[in-house]
C-alpha cells in the first residue's frame, strides 16, 4: 500500500479468524496495523483455533475482545471512518433467524464489554506502566544508544560477547506473565460487575 501511495486513501479491514489462520493473535494484527497507521475497520468475528479454516463465528471470547479493544483505545478509534462489521455466518447447527439475532447480540455485547474493560485499564494505567517498566532499559545507557541508531551489529557484538554471564542474568527480569493475566482477569470481572 505504501509503495504505490495507497495508504493515504485506503486502510485495512482486519479479521480475527484470518489472524488465527496466520498463527497470530487478533490483537497482534490490530497493533501492527495501528502502529503502521493503517487501522481501518474490524470484522467482528472469531474462529475456532482447532479447526484450521475460516468459519467466521460470532465473537464471544471476552479476553480476546478486550485485547482487540485495547488496541482500539490506544489508537483513539478504530479508523478514520471504520467500525465493527460482522462477517459472521450461520453455523451448521445454528442457522435459524433467531440464531442470527442472538449471534449479533453476543458479538456486540462481547466487543462492548471488551471496550469497557480496555477503557478501564487505560484509565488505570496498569498496562501502560507495565510496558514502560518492561522497556525501561531502552531509555538510558546501551539500550538508548541502540534505539538512537548509534549502535549496529558490529558494535553490539563485542559488547555482548564480552559481557559476563552474571551481568546478563542480572539484567534479565521476570515478566510476571501469570500475574499480568490475573490482573487482566480482575479488570474484566470488576469492570463488568459494575
TrEMBL record:
<keyword id="KW-0859">Xylose metabolism</keyword>
<keyword id="KW-0413">Isomerase</keyword>
<protein>
    <recommendedName>
        <fullName>Xylose isomerase</fullName>
        <ecNumber>5.3.1.5</ecNumber>
    </recommendedName>
</protein>
<comment type="subunit">
    <text>Homotetramer.</text>
</comment>
<comment type="similarity">
    <text>Belongs to the xylose isomerase family.</text>
</comment>
<keyword id="KW-0479">Metal-binding</keyword>
<dbReference type="InterPro" id="IPR036237">
    <property type="entry name" value="Xyl_isomerase-like_sf"/>
</dbReference>
<dbReference type="GO" id="GO:0046872">
    <property type="term" value="F:metal ion binding"/>
</dbReference>
<keyword id="KW-0119">Carbohydrate metabolism</keyword>
<dbReference type="InterPro" id="IPR001998">
    <property type="entry name" value="Xylose_isomerase"/>
</dbReference>
<dbReference type="GO" id="GO:0005737">
    <property type="term" value="C:cytoplasm"/>
</dbReference>
<dbReference type="GO" id="GO:0009045">
    <property type="term" value="F:xylose isomerase activity"/>
</dbReference>
<dbReference type="GO" id="GO:0042732">
    <property type="term" value="P:D-xylose metabolic process"/>
</dbReference>
Amino acid at each position: 500500500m505504501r509503495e504505490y501511495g495507497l495508504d493515504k486513501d485506503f486502510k485495512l479491514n482486519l479479521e480475527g479468524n484470518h489472524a488465527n489462520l496466520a498463527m497470530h493473535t487478533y490483537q497482534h494484527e490490530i497493533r501492527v496495523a495501528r502502529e503502521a497507521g493503517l487501522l481501518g475497520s474490524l470484522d467482528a468475528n472469531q474462529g475456532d483455533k482447532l479447526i484450521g479454516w475460516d468459519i467466521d463465528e460470532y465473537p464471544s471470547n471476552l479476553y480476546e475482545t478486550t485485547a482487540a479493544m485495547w488496541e482500539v483505545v490506544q489508537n483513539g478509534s478504530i479508523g478514520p471512518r471504520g467500525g465493527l462489521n460482522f462477517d459472521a455466518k450461520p453455523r451448521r447447527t445454528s442457522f435459524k433467524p433467531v440464531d442470527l439475532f442472538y449471534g449479533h447480540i453476543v458479538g456486540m455485547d462481547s466487543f462492548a464489554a471488551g471496550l469497557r474493560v480496555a477503557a478501564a485499564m487505560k484509565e488505570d494505567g496498569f498496562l501502560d506502566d507495565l510496558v514502560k517498566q518492561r522497556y525501561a532499559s531502552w531509555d538510558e545507557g546501551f539500550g538508548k544508544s541502540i534505539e538512537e541508531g548509534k549502535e549496529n551489529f558490529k558494535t553490539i557484538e563485542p559488547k555482548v560477547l564480552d559481557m559476563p554471564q552474571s551481568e546478563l542474568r542480572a539484567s534479565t527480569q521476570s515478566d510476571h506473565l501469570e500475574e499480568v493475566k490475573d490482573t487482566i482477569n480482575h479488570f474484566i470481572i470488576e469492570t463488568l460487575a459494575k
